[in-house]
Design brief:
Helices cover about 40% and strands about 20% of the residues. With about 240 residues, the protein is of the alpha+beta class. Strand 6 and strand 7 form a beta hairpin.
Length: about 240
Amino acid sequence: MKKKQRTVRSIHAWLGLITGVQLLFWCAGGLVFSTHDIEWVRGNHGRDRSPPATLPTTGVATSPGKAIAASGLADVHEVTLTTLLGKPVYRLTGEGGSALVDAGSGKAFTIDETQARAIAQADRAEPPEVTQSALITADAPTEFRGRDLSAWRVDLADADNTHIWIDQTTGAIAARRNDAWRRFDFFWMLHTMDYSGRDDFNTPWLVGFSVLGLLSVGSGWVIWLFRLFRKSGRPAA
């Protein structure tokens, strides 16, 4: 009996040593997830909440048909007349992607750096200064993983070190990233144990350490039961 107890204790000790660090990461991640407001993580704090701009009654000189022809897209299935930086534009989606067409001139265009900076600042209630901007066409960084390129990254000089990502072809804001999101994402990586893509819940590491964690808890219960039976078997003094 004592030999079995020593074996179980030894197994429990090794399991605790192996899984202890990862269990600490999981607990720390849970603390971060529960204390970070999700709207803050998503970059919505500090956003301009003004009502959407209304379409101007003048300035739309191009018909949807002409906009489709100017876009160069095939099989266009969505045409939206909207405003971008106060000007009426068409956003079109079809085979091969999306496009922007100026509703006044009828010319297709993509977002340039000046427009990207203006869009990023317009997204904030109190527009901060822009520290830098860059057009990313390949090898998107971790904070923009899984999104379509090309996109402008505009870095803002605010307290959260916010990056506004803007789709070059549509002018739409594709992502808002800040320090809260980066902390959340780092602990998310530790939580999933997906150190490359960060979003895979089926990694061998995660499965393996989950099993080891269960075995660690189970071996602890076995030790507790051994002690309980030993105490109950002692004769009364």
